[in-house]
C-alpha cells in the first residue's frame, strides 16, 4: 500500500501560525504508530482562519482539520486522523467548506491542492495546457485571445491586458521584456504571495505565454524582499521549469528563447509603481518616470516592456486553456472574469476569496467574512490598500468592480479588504495614510514629498483639538493639491483614505458629526 | 576591513556582466556583512562604472539597506493597516517594553534591533511580526513579550 498523503501547508501564512511544528508532530506520531505517511507541504487553500489546515487524502477525496496546533496532534490522531475521521476540529470534505464552495476558482484553481514543488503534479492538474496551446499560435492570436477574455490588470489600474500586449507586440525593438510585478506592498493583500508559494508554475506559465505573445526573450520577476519564502519557491520552480524545457533557448519547443530572472526589492513601496520598478531593476533609485513614453514603448533598458501584476499573468493560462469566452462569461460590467479578493484584518473568516466581479462589499464582509473577529460591529472597511478609501457600512451596497468603486471615490486596487471594528480611531488612520506617504514618497514631486508631511502636521493638530474646522479646510485643500499635482498614485491617491475618513467619520476629527456613516452602523451590526 | 574588502570584491565579481546589478550586489553585500559599509561604496561604484554619489544615493533610497550592522537579533513588527485593525499597537508596545527599546532602535549592548515593517503579506492572521526571519501571526502584547524574552542576549 502506498503512503497516506497528508497535507500541511508550507505557505508563509500557515508557517506564521505554527504549520512547521504541526507537520513535524504528525510525522513523529506516524513513525511511532508505524503508519507510512507522505507529508506534502502544499500552498494554502486561502482559509486562513483555519490555518494550519491539515488535510488527509482518502480514496473519496480530501478531508480537513483546522486550525490545528501542535498540542492538538495527539488527540486528533487518537480520534482517527490517519483514517480521515475526527470530531473536534474536523471539517469534513475540504471542497464542501462553504467559504471554498462559494468561490469561482480560475486563477487559484490549484493553489493549496497541488504539491508546489512538483511540475508533474502541476501538469496532472491541468497546468501547462495554456502554454502548449500558445506555443502553437502566432503571437497576434495569443494577444487576441487575451483581449477577448476582457482581462484587466490586477495590479490596481485595471488596464486591459490585451491592449497592453498588442502595444508591446507592435513596438519595434531589438529586444523586449516581460516584467512580473510581485511587489505586493498593499496592506491587506497576499494573492501574489499565495500563488508564488502555492502554484509557482502558473506564474512561470503566464510569464512564458506573455513572452511568446509580445516577442520578449527575457522576463524579470520582481518580488518584494518581505517575501523570502516566495522568493525561494520561485527560484526553485524556475530551475525546474528550465530543466523541463519550458524556459531557455527553446521555450516550450517553439524555437524561441525565454528566460526568467528573479529580482528582489529592497523595502520601497513605491517600487510597485511600474516605472519605479523598472528603475529598480535597472539598478537605480526607485523614482517614478514621467509618462510618456509608456513602458510598452520604452520600458526596461529602453526596450518595449510588458509590465503586469503577477495575478494578471497567472490568470492567462486559464484564458488559453479554457478559452477567452469561459473567462469573460463571468463578471460585472466592464470587469470580466474573477478577482481574488483578500479578506483581512479584523474579520472572522479571513482569507482569499476568488469570485466573479459584482459581489457587494457588504456580502463580502458580512456574509462571506462573517463580520469582525472581535465580534464587535464593523465600523470601516479599507479597500485597495493604503491608497484606498475607507467605506462605512452605509456604502456596503457597492459592487466589487473597478467602475463602481471609482464612482464612490474609492478603488479596488489589488483586491485587499481590511475590516475595522468600532474601536478604530479614524483620525489616526488618516494620519497613518499621510505618514505612510511621507515615508514612501520617491521625492520627485513636491505635493507628495512635502504635502504628506504637512498633512501629518495638520492631522496632529486636529487630533490635539486645535482649530479643527480651519485645519479640516486646509486638509481638504492639501488633498486637492496632492490629487491633482502628483505624478503617480502614491501622492495622487493618498487623499482617498484621508478624505473618506474625514467625510464619513467627521466626529473622529472633532468636527460636528454629519448625517452619514455613524447611524448606519446599527442596521448592519 | 581587509577581509571585508575581499568579500565585497568577490561579490562584485560574481555579478560581472549582469545588467542592472546594483540591487543584487547590495543585497549580497548586506547578506554577507550584515550591512553595506561606507567603504564598500567606492568599490561597487568602480565596478558598475558609476560615481560614488550615485551608489550612495541608491543605498540610501531603499529602506532595506543598513549603513551599520543590526543587532544580533532582528525583530520586525508589522505596522500596516490590517495588523493595526487587530491591535498591532499593543504588539509593538509589548516588544518595546520587554526589550526596553523603541521601534527603530537597537539595544545598547547590540543584542536586538526592533523595527517596523509595512506588511508581511500575512494580513489574514494579523497582527504579525518576524523575529530573526521566523514569522509569527495572531500575536498580542503578551505573546510579543514572550517572543522577546526568548531571545538570547
Ligand atoms: C505607489 C504605487 C504602488 C503600486 N504597487 C503595485 C504593486 O505592488 N503590484 C502591482 O502589480 N502593481 C502596483 N502598482 C500598479 C503598477 O504601477 C502597474 O499599474 C501594474 O503593475 C500594471 O500591471 P497590470 O496591468 O497587470 O495591473 C502600483 C502603483 C503605484 C502608483
Ligand atoms: S507622487 Fe510621490 S511617489 Fe509618486 S512620483 Fe511624485 S513624489 Fe514620487
Ligand atoms: S498588514 Fe501586517 S501583514 Fe499585512
TrEMBL record, chain A:
Domain NADH-ubiquinone oxidoreductase 51kDa subunit iron-sulphur binding: 427-472
Alphabetized GO MF terms: 4 iron, 4 sulfur cluster binding; FMN binding; metal ion binding; NADH dehydrogenase (ubiquinone) activity
CC cofactor: [4Fe-4S] cluster; FMN
Pfam families noted in UniProt: Complex1_51K (PF01512), NADH_4Fe-4S (PF10589)
Alphabetically ordered keywords of this record: 4Fe-4S, Iron, Iron-sulfur, Metal-binding
Role: NDH-1 shuttles electrons from NADH, via FMN and iron-sulfur (Fe-S) centers, to quinones in the respiratory chain. The immediate electron acceptor for the enzyme in this species is believed to be ubiquinone. Couples the redox reaction to proton translocation (for every two electrons transferred, four hydrogen ions are translocated across the cytoplasmic membrane), and thus conserves the redox energy in a proton gradient.
Protein family membership: Belongs to the complex I 51 kDa subunit family.
Name of the protein described by the UniProt record: Formate dehydrogenase iron-sulfur subunit
TrEMBL record, chain B:
Cofactor note text: Binds 1 [2Fe-2S] cluster.
Tagged with keyword Iron-sulfur: yes
Pfam families: 2Fe-2S_thioredx (PF01257)
UniProt keyword annotations, A-Z: 2Fe-2S, Iron, Iron-sulfur, Metal-binding
Cofactor(s) required for function per UniProt: [2Fe-2S] cluster
SUPFAM superfamilies: Thioredoxin-like
Organism domain of life: Bacteria
UniProt xrefs under InterPro entries: NADP_DH_HndA-like (IPR028431), NuoE-like (IPR002023), NuoE_N (IPR041921), Thioredoxin-like_sf (IPR036249)
Binding site for [2Fe-2S] cluster: 78, 83, 119, 123
Recorded GO MF terms: 2 iron, 2 sulfur cluster binding; metal ion binding; oxidoreductase activity
Coiled coil (UniProt feature): none
Keyword presence, Plastid: no
Family designation: Belongs to the complex I 24 kDa subunit family.
Protein name: Formate dehydrogenase subunit gamma
Lineage summary: Bacteria, Pseudomonadati, Pseudomonadota, Alphaproteobacteria, Hyphomicrobiales
